[in-house]
Model the fold of this input.
Amino acid sequence: MTTYDIIGDIHGCAPELEGLLSTLGYEQTDGAYRRAGHQVIFVGDLIDRGDSQVEVVRIVRAMHEAGSAQVIMGNHEFNAISYATRNPADPDDFMRTHLGRKGGHNTHQHRHFLEQVTEDSPLHHEIIAWFRTLPLYLELGDLRIAHACWHPDSLAVLDSWVPPGTPVSDAFIIEANSVGTPAFNAVEVVLKGPEMELSEEQAWRDPEGSPRRSARIKWWDDSAITMRQIAMIPQSSLTPDDEPHPGLPDLPYEEADAYRYRDAVPVFFGHYWFNETPTVSAVNAVCVDYSAVRPGGSLVAYRWTGPGPLDDSGFIAFPSTSRDVDDHLAADLPT
Ligand SMILES: [Mn+2]
Done:
């Protein structure tokens, strides 16, 4: 039986990736990291933000081609494809616009990748073509992987556009960038995570200073009932008027029920930039994104050895976090 090492969002941090792979007991042979009996599953968001994005793609792609890793698409790969896909309605532009104020924001968010790969170079086109082949989620029977959220209705919509095993088409990229279509909504949920709408009085300012009229929801947390409990608004957030955010009301928020995950099969996901000590999110859900690119953050893996209860001792981090992982590793080092 294969042991799966599920690795969170890398965001262009090659030294952390190589450090984590070594810690996990993988060794480089014939140009790819491998470990007998093990396979890595990358949950997406290989690129943007970090200093060594092309190197991260090279390492991950080599593992993928060697069969020592599986890889799914994150929202950053989806955005990179959309940024590089021509808009048939405007031949001067792309499906993720380069024009106007929004285009400026999109280019700014993607600038480190564009610089490092050299925009429009053969390498850029080659990497985008590879991104297009990445599945949007993985159903492995005993475990499930999605970048942000496992939501069967949305996965069925994605299947209708992208039959499993086929690359994403231009037609899908066009439809999935058209606000309000089923394909757009499915990408929002699966790759970016479901959100709750907020009133003007409930708006908050994100760490970059932008006012937000929505908040991500903890779809994995069955114990979260009220708006305040379900919404992810960082502590000490401000309102757009610079006041301390009062928090959301303790009123039931039933709309979250549409996204709750209650199956026994565990789901692994990334995307949420957690910054505390790695902890299983629920009895059937594990987030493996602990902000590798943020100072003080770590690249994290969860080692899945077979069906059974999920446990915090399954986490392995590089650099290691305050949790003492030594005992866990000592029992599991390659001989
Ligand atoms: Mn993400």
Q: What stands out?
A: Residues 100-117 form the longest helix (18 residues). The first strand starts at residue 3 and ends at 7.
